[in-house]
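Work Package 3 (structural annotation) set out to generate three-dimensional models for the target panel prioritized at the project kickoff. During this period the team completed the workflow that converts sequence records into discrete structure tokens, so that structures can be stored uniformly alongside our sequence database. As a representative example, we reproduce one entry of 281 residues exactly as it appears in the project archive.
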Amino acid sequence: MNNTDSKITPLAAARQDKDLPTRQQAILDLAHQGGFVATEQLVRHFGVTPQTIRRDINTLCDLKLLQRYHGGAGLPSSVENAPYADRQGQSPDAKQRIAALTAGLIPNYASLFINIGTTTEAVAKALVGHEGLRVVTNNINVAQILRENPSFEIILAGGTVRNRDGGIIGAAAIEFIRGFRLDYAVIGISGIDADGSLLDFDLREVQVARAIIDSSNHVLLGADESKFGRRAMVRLGDLSDVQSLITSAAPPAPFMPAITGAGIDLIYDDRSAAAALAEDG
């Protein structure tokens, strides 16, 4: 075997063995780059109908190359999250809707935690116009965003900085977080299981997020459509650990019993549901 052959990834080998049509191979490449592909984004990208994209996704899922999630499909891995730079570009409209709804729930002069994640960073941007917030965060990017407002007091947790995304993790961060009791927590998640389990990839990140939940009076969980049914190997907790779930569209029907059973507020933008109905029509 030559050097070039030895560098072929299992995913690339699967594409070659299956001899996929050009568009399906391109969809798989996009999923490999970002970890998730949204149906509506693929429709715009390829200039085809939603039904065509769904057929392509179904084929790739039948071949075990992708896994279906609400609103699209992603790589069938529970071990590793997509790279931070790729996640920043995923579902920007959905994240902006979630951010606007979440920011609307937080009054001026409140105290809050904001944890690691691209969705929580979108919420931080939506909060810049508030007044007098007191924010504790283990996310360097959030601190940089919020420092634009001179009326805010920003407290950055100590600990180990994760180079790939500016997250702060470790025992020092956990101990630091436990020294506060704040009004709100804004958290993100990598996956939500149909039984209500909240799932993520990094145990150290989850341990800090758990401390944030335990130190907050009201937990606001932001999750776009791709998070429903997405697998990840570390369990953070359950939907009953949060008070409000803010998402970009109505959750899939199989998830509603867990949401209802948790007794939490479900908040989403009705306009996104109307757009989905129009697309299917």
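The chain is about 45% helix and 20% strand.
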